[in-house]
Specification:
The chain is an alpha/beta fold. It has twelve helices and 13 strands. It is globular, with a radius of gyration of 19 Å.
């Protein structure tokens, strides 16, 4: 990855207030890119606002389901690169309310891809998920496996993934798909997720809640490694071996939920606080983990952070988060929401 590549690039990031989007925006700004952010809700606690990065980007207010907004964002800002991260990302929410999840994750993806096709965007990275593979007989997931989601969230990711591939094979749109496991890092305010939820509980000397029986297996990848992977994927899109392809990004060290919680308890010196196992998870695959051989080979990507290093940085972020009052966005600088 070179700083020169991103200097003066005109980049649209959807989902800029999410955990990955906020860190991606931060990295792109540091490398001199002109960043446009699609923002639906202005959450003053998100890293995008707390860090002040929102002051350095052009913000388009709107949602994925509005084609006119997406087309305006791409066209009026003369975007040449798109990172599509915005989505309804919570499995439980999708299980309870599938239609809004399908609308955001599927319709929002093909609307954005169509805007990119019309205005000849030079490179598009779609953030998919290991959930797109659905249940498979063998693990780890490899990119040559079929996409066969079964439950609402999985299906939304399978569909969006396949639609992105169709835009490459039919229209030649330079697009590639990134599939990650469980992404963690500072700025994730979805407390139902295991990493932020456990850290918050332990900081408050409370028992962490485990929705499953604790034996569910997952990949965990630090957000800064994810950002590096997304950027590397965009940088390599002129390679015919990359365009139209899906790529897994993984630490390749799967853990059970209980193992992850135990690691956090150890790092935070909270071994005496035992987790509460609820065993009521619904609509989730038991075991998922990814092979990242393709990304390591074709993109020359590999994670820079071990699990412990990433978790330590994440814990430090939440310690500061809970020690500081939430900031309110300066409406004089950000009047559009």
């Amino acid at each position: 990855m070179t700083i020169q590549f991103w200097q003066q690039r005109r980049v649209l990031v959807t989902g800029a207030t999410g955990v990955v989007g906020a860190w991606l925006v931060k990295d792109l700004l540091a490398q001199g890119a002109y960043v446009v952010a699609l923002v639906r809700d202005a959450d003053p606690q998100s890293e995008f606002f707390r860090s002040g990065d929102f002051r350095s980007v052009s913000i388009v207010s709107g949602c994925l389901e509005d084609f006119a907004t997406l087309e305006r964002a791409v066209n009026e800002h003369e975007v040449d690169t798109v990172f599509h991260l915005a989505a309804q990302t919570i499995v439980g929410t999708a299980h309870r309310s599938p239609v809004p999840t399908f609308e955001a994750n599927i319709r929002g993806t093909y609307y954005l891809l169509e805007a990119c096709r019309i205005h000849r965007v030079q490179r598009v990275v779609i953030a998919s998920s290991d959930k797109a593979y659905g249940p498979q007989l063998q693990l780890p997931y490899r990119e040559d496996m079929p996409l066969q989601g079964r439950h609402p969230y999985e299906v939304s990711k399978s569909c969006a993934d396949l639609i992105a591939q169709s835009y490459y094979h039919t229209y030649g749109l330079p697009v590639a798909i990134a599939r990650c496991g469980n992404v963690y890092g500072g700025g994730d305010l979805n407390w139902s997720r295991i990493v932020p939820g456990t850290i918050r509980s332990l900081l408050h000397q409370e028992a962490p809640l485990i929705r499953s029986d604790g034996t569910f297996v997952r990949d965990y990848l630090y957000v800064k490694d994810v950002v590096q992977g997304y950027q590397r994927l965009a940088e390599c899109l002129e390679d015919e071996r990359v365009a139209g392809e899906g790529f897994n990004f993984s630490q390749e060290a799967p853990l059970t939920v209980l193992q992850l919680v135990d690691t956090l308890r150890s790092l935070m010196h909270c071994e005496a606080i035992l987790p509460l196992v609820q065993a009521n998870a619904r609509g989730e695959i038991h075991s998922q983990h990814l092979s990242a051989l393709k990304a390591r080979t074709l993109l020359e990507w590999q994670p820079r952070f071990s699990l412990e290093e990433g978790l330590r940085e994440t814990i430090d972020w939440y310690r500061q988060f809970f020690a500081l009052p939430a900031r309110t966005p300066d409406r004089t600088l950000y009047p559009v929401l």
